[in-house]
Structure formats: structure tokens, C-alpha cells
Amino acid sequence: MTTTTPANRNGRTPDRDDWYLDDEFWRHFGSLMFNEETYAEAGEEMDALIGQLGFSTGHILDLGCGPGRHALPLASQGYPVTAIDTSPSLLAELESRRDELPIEIVRADMREFRRPAAFNLILIMWTSFGYFEAESDHDRVLECSVDNLSDDGRLVLDLVGVEYLARNLEPVHLTEYDDGRLLIERPVLVDDLQRLDNDWILIDGDRVFRTHISHRVWSAGEIRSLLLRHGLDVESIQGGFHGEPYDLDAERLIIIARKARAGSDFQQGPNA
Ligand SMILES: C[S@@+](CC[C@H](N)C(=O)[O-])C[C@H]1O[C@@H](n2cnc3c(N)ncnc32)[C@H](O)[C@@H]1O
Q1: DSSP 8-state secondary structure symbol assigned to residue 262
Q2: Domains within the chain, CATH numbers bracketed
Q3: Which residue among 45, 83, 243, 266 is the one 20 to 30 A from 3 at the CA level?
């Protein structure tokens, strides 16, 4: 459990610890993240992942699905998908895009969503794992996920590793979008390099939106240990969905884990 309080993080005080539940945030900043380019990337990622896993049939759970960048292409290939998110605006966007596709859309919190043994594959994509201030909340997501996986079902986490962040973080980063909007990011690693705090300042014409977000980050070794403690056997740690190695240059930390078989060493529970 982290011991640093918001006030001693470089003097920056988050507006709220649960910023990720604030739909205002997703309405202001979501359109920067979810655009045609990132939708296309997600479709390619899913093609590569499904190929790598040799996944042919089964029910998929997309936790923190957002507007459905991954749920939509998976459902269009015929897989039944349950898409979970807490943001009404992002779920409405998914609803408007899905036509007749086999997607069950549920507004729910990933810390609480339980449907035992219902899913063959669970995805938590684009750093949607790591938002919580309390370590126990990340544990809850993993406990629910293990419970929700079928025997031998697999969990895929798509993160950014602290190894990459520590080497590549710029104190100030400016992005100018085609429509003229400007995003200023001021990221910093805090709490013994276990959290990434970030100021986001969006300038849209005469309007300025500012927010402070905070995110748990892990190294590859730490996340492996965390999954192991939850009864998940890590099959692969990789730097992308196209077989990239996980090394110091890897921009992504992708973990593919399998629910450990009953009776194996991994069935010891999270406190073992
Ligand atoms: C960076 S977005 C990623 C969305 C999607 N996975 C993608 O790759 O496009 C993170 C998503 O997690 C959702 N989220 C945040 N906290 C959540 C929670 N406790 N339970 C479910 N979803 C949550 C947000 O609403 C948002 O849609």
C-alpha cells in the first residue's frame, strides 16, 4: 500500500483520487485518445493477439472498454464480447457504433464485476489497469478476473512499464492536434517509481481544461509477481502485439497470463 499522500507529490494536489470515474474527464480528454487512428491500431492489435493466442471460440470480457476500440473489431469477427466500463459517455459512444454486433454493454466497476467462469479471455487494454490509489483495489480487479475466467482462460494486460517511463519520460510534453487543440503533459514518477502522476492541460481555442491524474506503474518483474500471487501463470511478457521483445526500449508492457490449474503451486491465494 502506498504511503505517500497526494499533498507531498511534488506539491501537486490531485482534484480527486478517483479522477478515472469523472465523466467530465473522459468527455474532455477522450476525444484526444479515441480517434480513427487509435481505433485502427486497436483492430490490428486484436488480429495479432487472437492469432498469437490461437483463440478460435469463446466469450471475451473487455474491462475498461472505453468506446470499444477492441470490443468492436472482436465482435465483428463473431466473438461474443461483454464490454464493461464506468463512463456513461464512452459507453454511449460504443452503443452508437456497435450496430447488431454481439456486444453486451454493461456499466460496471471492474473492481466489482463478477460472473464466475463466464469468460475465456479477459482484456484490460491501454493502461486501464493501474488507476487505483489503494493497492487492494488492483487486487480486487485481479480477484474478480480470476473468478470470472474459465479453467485455462487467459488474461491480457496492456501496460506501460516503469522501465520505459524511467528512461523516456519528458518533464513537459506538448502535442498539437490537427484541429488546433494543444495538450500539455507534465508527468513525473513518484512513490519510489511506483506511480506516474501527470498534469494534463488542454487548450481548446479560448478554453483551458486542466486535470491531474495518477496511475500505478509496475516493472515487468513486479507485475509477474502480482499476477502469480493471484493464481495467474504468466505465459508471456512482451513489448507489443507483434512479437516485440520486452526490453528497455519497449513502449508497451503486454502480459499474457493463464489461470493456473487447480492443484498447481500457484493456487495459494493472494496473500501466500
Ligand atoms: C485509457 S481508457 C482505455 C479504454 C479502452 N480499453 C481502449 O483501449 O480504448 C481507460 C478506460 O477505463 C475506464 N475505467 C476507469 N476506471 C474504471 C473502473 N473502475 N471500472 C471500469 N472501467 C473503468 C475508463 O472509463 C476508460 O474508458
Answers
A1: T
A2: 2-21+164-216 (2.20.25), 34-161+218-259 (3.40.50.150)
A3: 266
